Amino acid sequence: MGKNINKVKEVDVATVAGNKTLAAAVDRRAIERCKEAIEKLGVLHTPVIGTAKGGKRIILSGQCELTALRELGVKKMDAIEVDIAGGAAASAKLTLLLLSLQGRPGALCEGLLLQEAVGAGVPRLEIQGMLGKSASWVSNRLSLVTRLDSSVYEMVKGGLLEPRSAEEIARLPAEAQFAFAEVAVREGLPKSAIESLVSGYRDGSCPDAVRAQIIGNPREALKRMSDKRRAVDADRHGQAKEGAPPDIVAGMLKSAGIQIAALRSVLSGVSTDGAEEHKNALRGLETGLYALLDVIRNLFTRVKTEVGHCG
Fold first, then answer.
1. Any alpha helices (H) in 170-217, and if so which ranges?
2. How, if at all, do strands 57-61 and 48-51 pair?
3. If pLDDT is split at 50, 70 and 90, which confidence band does 172 have?
4. Residue 1 pLDDT class (50, 70, 90 cuts)
5. Is the pLDDT of residue 284 over 90?
6. Neighbours of 90 (CB within 10 A)
7. Is 43 within 8 Å of 78 (Cβ atoms)?
8. d(CA 81, CA 286)
9. Model's pTM, two decimal places?
10. What is the separation of C-alpha 140 from the centre of its chain, rounded to a whole number of angstroms?
């Protein structure tokens, strides 16, 4: 048999420091689900902790489990303990390795972990190889962290704002992010509403007055944007009911006639193999033509009926 590489040991929960970056990716719902799972089944995913010089322990993977165990009052836990006495770079590289083996924690958390690794001196090329990601992926994640206002990030760390919502807010101009985040938290806006508001703010045709309302009174802005969408939809529906102008109808009929004649000429020379190759498209065309034929017949029926009434 090979050598024993089992590093699981029992540790005191109180001696393990949390990881603020990982904590930013954990919301309240995830912690509650984790607590429920622990109470019913135990810890399903063994936390990984790093031991630095002096014996200080910090969570490298399993922040959600650590928080849940603390809230449940658990004193001891099984954990995989590894040596990170090599310093910040060693710790960052190990955290990224663990990240690559797990489900995505979210773009913001990924960006923060990458920032820590780069700051600790880990080359970007090495990071790309560890995670199996492209240079543009790494750059985009780092750019997200750079764009996000530091005060907004503090709201994420404090549990006031969900990381996914912060990712959307990072798309706003830097000077507008914190003011919008404060109102979004106060109003309890879900991510879907934040996404709509941010997209509206970034729309080049959005008036300055609406942008100001999005920042200061987002719920009213949402209502205003919704009313505008309904009005546009109603206008489009009305135009469809009114029908296209006669000159457009005449032009489309003429164009369709030319296309049909050309298509008939081409298809008459298609071989059996060619017909098989285009079978799905031909069947779709056949269905469309039958539907068009029904519309034409209905039009002729209406014309005959109306002419008969007039006579």
1. 174-187, 191-202, 208-216
2. antiparallel
3. very high
4. very low
5. no
6. 17
7. yes
8. 67
9. 0.49
10. 14
